[in-house]
Every structure is written in C-alpha cells, then in structure tokens.
C-alpha cells in the first residue's frame, strides 16, 4: 500500500473547534492554546475568524488573539476572512494568512452565507485579488462536498469544478470539507477522482467532521489516493457526539497517532500535542471527543 | 480499490459488550436485545459466556438467555466456552455454537486465563475435540494480536502461527483481536500478511476495540487485504471512552454505515439495528459510544 512519507496537519481547533463551544474562553486562553499548538510543531493553525461577533461570539477577539500569539518559525497562522470587510480587519492585524469559504451545495451556500455559490465566488474573487496584492496566502474551504443537510447528495463533478475555480481565483489549496460528517471512504475516492480531472491533489486538503465515526477511515482513503494535507481539531474540540448536530472535526491526536503508526512524518510531538489538549480540556464544559486523549490518560493512571 | 462484495458482521454486544457494563441487565432484557439483533439480520450473535459468575456477574444467566431467545433461520448464536466445564454447561443448553479463547501474548494469557499459551491450547484441544464430536461449530478468539498491556509489542509471526494452530485444533475461524485498541492500519496489513503465510484470510475475522479511534480505519485496511468477517458491538455497548481502561468494540451501526456506503452487502437492516441500539441505550447508565447512533437521533430531531 503506497502512502505519502510526510503529511501536513492543519489544526483548526482555535476556529472551527472553539466557535462551536459554549464555554466562554478568554483571549488569554485562546492565545495559550495557539502557543501550545505551535510548540507541538503544527505547520498551520487556524487561529480565528473575522466574522460577525453577533453570530459567532466566540470569534469576537480574533484580532487580539492574532496580536498576542508567539509566532513560531515554521508555523503559519490563518484566520477566516470570508468577505472584504473581514479582509480589511485581517490586514489591520498584519496577518499573512487568511481563509475564504464557498460551498458545493447551492442551498447550503444561501443559508450559511446568504449568497448563491456564484455570488460567493464573486466575493472570493475580490478578497483574493486584494489579499494576494497585499502579499497574503489564501486558503479556500469548500463545504458540503460529500453531502448537504438540505439537498442530500452533492455531485462529485461539481466539487471538482469548484475546486478548480477556487484555485483559479488564487487560493493555494482547497480544503474539501465534509461539513456534516456523512462521507465514507468510497465517497472520498469518488470525489477525489472527480477532482483529479481538474486539479492536482497536491492542492487539496481534506477536512472531515467525525459525526458518524468515519473520519479516520476517510483519512486513510485520502492518503491512499495521494492527499497529503488534513485538517483536524486538537482534542476534537468543537464536537460533542451526544449533542444533537454538534460533531467536531476529527481529533488531531487520533489523526497523528494513525499517521505516525503508518510511518508518516508530521513534525508533531505527540506529548506536546497532548499538553494542548489537556489545556483545552480544562477550559470547556464537557469531555473532549478525542479517543487517543482519553486512552493516554487512562494508561497513565 | 478492490473490496469484498459481501461481509459477515458478528455482533458481540450481548457478551463482550454487556460483560463490561455496570448497569444490571435482566435476563429478559438480554433476550430482547438478542432478538432485536436477530431481527436486524445479523449472521452471528455472541449471546453470552459460560464463565465464572463471580468474576463476570453479567454473564451468570447465559443458559437462561440461550433457552429463551427466538432462533431466526440464518442467524447463529454463540456462547464463549473457554474450558471443559463451560463446554458441559453449553452442551446442556443444546447450543450449536461456542467460542474459545487464546492470547498471542504470554503474560496476557497468564493474567487473563491463569494459563500459559501452551496450557490454554491444550485446553482448547480438549474443548474442540468434544465440541466437534457433539456437532458444534467452534469459533476461536486470539487476543492481544496487536499489542499487550503488559508486554507491549506482539510479534506478528507469532499471531500467524497461533492462528494456524487454532485452525488445526478445529475452530472454523479465528477472530484476530485488538484487545486494547492500539492497532493502526499499517499494523493490520503487517499482521494479516504474517497470517497469510499460514492460513487463508477466509478463516480470519477481525475484532477491533475503538480505544484510540482507529477501529474503522483498521476495518478498511482489513477489507482491502481481503478479510470478510468483522466483529462489532451494537451501539458500541461495553465501551465508554471517558472511563479509564473501558473502551468497547467498534459500534455495529458505524461499521454497517461504512460497509453499506462502500457498496458492501451485510444483510443487515440499519433501521432495525438502530432499534436494537435504542433498546440497549435505555438499559445502561451512560451514553452509547456509537457515533452513527447519535447522529441518526440528531437528524430525526
């Protein structure tokens, strides 16, 4: 079985994780979490989002977080900046990395961003032009690539076309996302196959939520297809399998345990990663979903 | 990616699941659980164990359970019978299927069964001779095939040799088990490769605990290697990821969701399987670990 020698892990816990947590996390605590993830050797950390504080209160202090974190050489720090106003806020912080967001499902796009897919692509075009001119690197998320909560099935060919469009607009990679956690490995192969008709898989990251427990099997399928970048959330932050509709990203510890077991380098120090998860665990109001995290604590006892 | 067209799922929740639950489950409730699993179309159900009621109180009424269940044509009902005394108790119930138990790690064998591996094989030889003479089918478990809580690494060649030995003693298949849930897909390929030097994979089942969240990735690895039988526990019964040392089998619902997604037939009706998990969920004192179970309930709300 041919697998990549090295994989890039993008930890999205300070954004995709925390934005789904109910507990109030202070700015200082967010800074500590990002610093612990840096210390663990993460290549990229999504540190926050420039979005409406009214709709996503947990992200209200992203500018302060970006201003206060220690920037480790070798780690990139991104923030979601889904529109021109958000880009202006991001530019004011001096950040070098932003992320933009489109959806592969028309209904999800309208409900989530109040824009059609075409309208959101027009927004992304403007954001990318200005961000690239300012020397920023832009990452693209493509949500609902494996299923939509409103429309059900999503056409894999559409995912391939939209991946190409986002790359043409200037994003350096597209995080092909299973927003509602319905994907299974067969679908991963199908979608990646559709993408390869339009783009190199070196430009694709996979972003799995573990709603139905498939995330790591899907990662294995992605590795076998040649994908070398995967998103994950420290501790599985943002997810609680027993709360309706709230299922987080695959836990970074579980992902890294599998990758290291497969002999794949990540540059991540597991003990330091567990230190980050332990810190996060003590700041939220429920148990983390990372299975490796709990197994490692049980073994120590 | 070549995958089998059909897979056999063995639901071990009435035994490996319930024996690790603290809540008191009545005989009638166990019978209902087995009947619901039968109705879901399960090919084999491990319905109980003839073991010491002092050490495993939850299994004290296995004879009564076996006497009361409805036997669906097409479903086999097994009980663990690890020694001659247990076999006598099993024979008295008229059951047609038993399971025996060996370990791939010497220390685990001594601590778990109070016998060396060679002594346990001698026991299994006697049990198999008598069981086969009585027309029973015998399944073999081989525990700690991917790691031992006392010894750490386990030699894959030893797993291959012991699989052959168990088959030679008369078991119809060997459930190669990751007792402590440490396996990752690379190890699955390595162990299965070592087994193929001694036995056909058509005689091998894989039995994963989901302690570190790897179970379904490991199943995918096993499917790709050609294994067509997998153990699982309805609802993930027996496991609680937040309790030290207690991590259950992979949940049957999560396994079946992945298999059906891959286009693999199981003969299992997911809605009826969820009915069994719902019944189990209402009888235990914590949330089930099956992610698909919770996702399906969230979607219904």
SSE topology sketch:
The structure is a homodimer of 301-residue chains.
Chain A: E1 8-11, H1 13-17, H2 27-39, E2 44-49, H3 62-68, E3 76-80, H4 84-93, E4 97-103, H5 106-113, H6 117-133, E5 137-143, H7 156-169, E6 173-178, H8 185-196, E7 204-208, H9 215-225, E8 229-232, H10 252-261, H11 270-281, H12 291-300
Helix pairs in contact in A: 2-3, 2-11, 7-8, 8-9, 10-11
Keywords:
homodimer, 301 residues, alpha/beta, TIM Barrel, 8-stranded parallel barrel, 12 helices, 8 strands, 15% strand
The gyration radius over C-alpha positions of chain A equals 18 Å
* Tertiary shape of chain A: globular
Series of H and E elements of chain A: EHHEHEHEHHEHEHEHEHHH
Number of strands of chain A: 8
Give the full name of the CATH homologous superfamily of chain A: Aldolase class I
Instruction: Flag low-confidence runs of chain A.
Output: none
Please give the oligomerization state of what you see. homodimer
Helix content of chain A: 40-55%
The biggest beta sheet of chain A reads: 8 strands, parallel, barrel
Figure out the total of helices of chain A: 12
Average pLDDT, all residues of chain A? 95
